[in-house]
Amino acid sequence: MNQNLNFRAYFQCINEDCRSTYNVDEIVYQCKKCGDLLEVKHETNELKKRTPDEWKQLFSERYRSTIFPYVSGVWGKREWVLPEIEEQNIITTGEGATHLFDARLFANNLGVKALYVKQCGISHTGSFKDLGMTVLVSQVNQMIRRGKKIRAVACASTGDTSASLASYAAKAGIPSIVFLPENKVSTAQLIQPVSNGARVISLDTDFDGCMKIVKQVSQEVGIYLANSMNSLRVEGQKTISIEIMQQLNWNVPDWIVIPGGNLGNVSALGNGFEMMLEIGLIQKAPRILLAQSRNANPLYRSYLNEFKDFSPVEAKQTLASAIQIGDPVSVKKAIKVLKRFQGIVEDASESELSDAAALGDKFGLYNDPHTGVAIAAMQKLINKNIIEKNHTVVIISTASGLKFTEFKVKYHQNEIENINSTYINSIYRSKPNLSEVMDIINKHL
Ligand SMILES: *Cc1c(COP(=O)(O)O)cnc(C)c1O
Ligand SMILES: [Zn+2]
Question: Which atom of ligand 1 lies nearest, measured to the CA of 260?
Fold first, then answer.
């Protein structure tokens, strides 16, 4: 295999009338000419010099390798992600290469042919955010080592981005600053960046308010913006699509279901499939179902109007706190992806998302509330017969349930406000006495 191909990635403005390009070594988050979002583009003609089978074989050889940097699922796809990174600058925690949970009994229960849950939350900091953060922090590390003056990396977060940034930055020895909305993230999410030594600033506002501040702060010299409007993150997250296809032996599923807030991840998912189609690794596109919390559903509202317009909303409190976002940064990218992949948007109420998470748990999963939103949205399309009996569905699970213990405990104690827990599993109390224990077992088994 020819190793000396000129793989290259660069930033390009998403505005069709502009298309300005920038070097990935440049500190730029938005187009300097028109202000629109940037996306990372690859020289696909170079990538096409390897055949689809050669790529598949290479990805397969590297999968769950013991060899650095292929210990990481993301860097196993390095030519498709950030080809010009020097190995010595890569900051990885072995992210990616996560399990694709074959939920057969759950699929039977729901009445679909097959259901898989991509466990992106089984990762160093417990969410898929690690997939993008390894790329961003590695690139920042490379820029610093090449002499760029970067004092710190900064982000606004609904909890998982800050946990991820703080950890990767600490591993690289780069200071980090995180902005969190006061009282709107779980205890686990709050204590992660604190433990990793980030400067944690809690603001009396919501995520959208934190985002405004961090954008201003990153105008200051030397503060590098790590939110997903920085499209380096989307490049790492894109590998989710490629891994799913590897794990399904390149058989394209009918549906991918993904929860969305700031909408970077659904854009990444689409880009991954787009690249595989373009380079010829797959021939058919899946459909995408984007799931939102009803309390923060601006894209769902826009979808009902065929995406003709989009208006931000004020996001209300939701158990799916990582997607409590009313003014998503990547909305334009997401709409493009949804149009391309015959996308549908659904929303789920607090009660629907809680029950959906708990129902999945009964089949061996341990769902965070965001995965609950995705499962609830899937159930709606099954009920409407849009997801059909002979369909294969993949759900993107975005975080570990272990980060949301308060949610899980309250559900099974039937203590979530205004919600009646349908799938409650109560703990039986008994004296340590055989006959009393056997009474319980005989009554409830
Ligand atoms: C960030 C996050 C999301 C939403 O991803 P976006 O790219 O903002 O749409 C969903 N679930 C969890 C657990 C997250 O941390
Ligand atoms: Zn532009």
Answer: 9
